[in-house]
Amino acid sequence: MIKLFRYLKPYRFAMITALLLVMARALTDLFLPTLTADIVNNGVVSGDIAYILRVGVRMLLVAAFGGVCALVGNYFTARASNGFARDLREDVFRRVESFSLNEFDKFGTSSLITRTTNDITQMRMVLMMSMRMVVMAPVMSIGGLFMAISKDATLSLVFVVALPVLFTVVTFIARKGTPLFRDIQAKLDNLNLILRERLTGIRVIRAFNRDEYEKKRFEKGNYDYTATAIRVHRIMSVMMPSMMMIMNLTTISIVWFGGIRISYGQMMVGDLMAFIQYGMHIMFSMFNLSMMFVMIPRAAASAARINEVLETQPEIVDADVVKKADAKKGYIEFENVTFSYPGAERPALRNISFAAGPGEVTAIIGGTGSGKSTLSSILMRFYDVDSGRILVNDVDIREMAQSDLRSRIGYVPQKAVLFSGTVAGNICYGKDDASEDEIRRALEIAQASDFVDAMPNGIFSEIAQGGTNVSGGQKQRLSIARALVRRPEIYIFDDSFSALDFKTDARLRAALNKETAESTVIIVAQRVSTIMDADRIIVLEDGEVVGIGTHQELMATNTVYQEIVSSQLLEEEIA
Ligand code: ADP
Ligand code: MG
Questions:
Q1: Residues contacting residue 113 through CB under 8 Å, at least 6 positions apart
Q2: Ligand 1 centroid to residue 424 C-alpha, Å
Q3: Which fold has domain 415-487?
Q4: Could you report the per-residue pLDDT of 504-557, keeping only the tens digit for each?
Q5: Residue nearest to atom 22 of ligand 1 (CA)
Q6: What confidence tens digit (pLDDT) does each residue in 219-234 have?
Q7: Please, which residues have CB less than 5 A from ligand 2, an ion?
Q8: pTM reported for the whole predicted model
Q9: I want to staple 144 with a disulfide (CB 3.0 to 4.6 A). Which of 49, 281, 344, 396 is the partner?
Q10: Domain spanning 350-408+489-575 has what CATH number?
C-alpha cells in the first residue's frame, strides 16, 4: 500500500489543507463543551438570561465556523482521494495497454477489469475516510481526555474502565472480519467473469437454450459473493450496537458518579454536561480509530492486487536502442523459427523457414490448429519466438520498435473486431489522418461500399458495441478496409475471406491484387481457390512446414496438399 502513496504526491496541498481544516474542526468540537459548561454554571444556575444569550451566540458562531471547516475540509479530501484514484487508474490502464498477450493470459480480462475499477474504488474510499479520521481521531481522543481530566480528574477514572472494554470489543470484531474482505475481492472477480461470459456469449447461450444453466451459474457466483458479503456485514453490524451500548453505559456511569460528586459539592452541573460530551467524543474517536484498523487491511488487499498489475513487467518490450528497418521495404524472413505458447507442452510452430518479398503473395494453408494464426501472431510480435529469428527488411523484429514493426503491417485478424463508433472511425484505426477519399477508396476495394452506402448515414453510420449490427462477412470486409487504408508494406490476411461468398471473394481478390501489387502479402486461407495463384504456398501440418511451392509444384509432389485439394474439389462437385 505504501508504494501507492506516491500517487498522493500531486495532491499534497489539498491534503494538507484538508488536514488543517479537519484539525480546526476538531478544536471547535473540543471548545464547545467548555461553553456549555459556562452557560450552565454561570447562566442557567443564576438565571442570567443576558449571559446565556451572549454565550449562546458565541457557541453558534463557533459551531458555524466548525461546520464551514468540515465542509471545505471534506471537499479537499474528496478532491485528493478522487485525484489519486484517477491517476492510479490511468497508470494501471496504461500498464495493461503495454502488456503483451502473455500477461493478459496470466491475469485474465475480468480480473484486470475489477482491479482497475472496484479495487481502486476501495482504496479511494479508505483514503478519504482516513484523511478525515487520521487527524480527527487522535485530536479528539487525546484532547478530549485532556479536557475531561481538567474538568474533573476523579470522574475521568470512568474511562480507565470504558476504553479498554471498547478497544477489546472492536479489535475482536475486526479480527474476524478482515480475512473475509480479501475473499470478497476474489469472489467479485469470479462474478465478473461469469457476467462477462454471459453477456458476450448471449447468442450462443440462447441458441443452445442454456439460459437456465447460465442463470444457475450466475446465481451460484452471485450467492457466493453475497454470502461472504453478508458474513462480513453480520460481523460488522455487531460493532455498532455493542459500541452504542458501551457508550451509553459509560454515559450512565458518568451521570451516576457525577451526580454523587455534585451532591457532595465537588462538581458543577455544567461541568458534568461538558464531561458527558467529552466522553462521547473520546469514545467515538476511539471507535473510528479502530474502524480504520478494519478498513486498512481491506484497502491493503486491494492495493496488493493493484500493485501486482503495476509491477508486472511486460515480457515484450522495446530494446533500449531500436533499429530502423528502412533500408528495404516489405522483406520478411523466417529463419528456423520455433515457438511455443507459455505453458504449452509442445511448440505450436517448429523450424519454420521461408522468405517473402514485395510483390509476392505467400499463402499459408493447413488444417485447423496447424499454427497458421500463430504464425501471423509472432510476425506481429504478439509473442516472442523461442529460437530462430524473424527478420523484417533484414532487421530482427526484436530489435525494432514494436510500433515501427506494426506500422508496416496491415493486419486482418481471423476474428474481425470492430469498435463502437462510426464506420469511418473504425477505418481510421488503420490510419489516424485518413481523408474521406482514402476511407471511401479502402471501402471500395474491400467490397464494402455497397452495404456501407446503404446504411442510414453512409460512412458515418454507427457501429454498435462489438460490431453486432453488421454481419460476419461485412465485419470482415470492414476490417480488411481498415488494413488497406494504411497502405502498408506487408499485409497479413488471417483467414479473412472465410465469411464471404464465392462471388464477393473473387471480386475482392481481383481488386486486392491491384492494390497490393507492390506489397508483400501473406494470406492464410482454407479454400484452395483463394490461394491457387499465390507465388508461394506454405503447407503447414501440426506446426511444421510440410511443403513450400506453387500450386503446380505442390500438386505434383505434395501429398498433404493433394489431399486438401481433392477434398475441396469433391465438396465443390457435390455443391
Ligand atoms: P490455426 O490458425 O492454424 O487454426 P492456431 O495458430 O490458432 O491454428 O493454433 C495452433 C495451435 O496453438 C493449436 O494447437 C492451439 O491449440 C494452440 N494455441 C493457439 N492459441 C493459443 C494460446 N493463446 N495459448 C495456448 N495455445 C494456443
Ligand atoms: Mg487460425
A1: 192, 196
A2: 32
A3: Rossmann fold (3.40.50)
A4: 888 888 898 888 889 999 999 888 888 888 999 999 999 999 999 999 999 999
A5: 341
A6: 999 999 999 999 888 8
A7: 372-373, 414
A8: 0.72
A9: 281
A10: 3.40.50.300
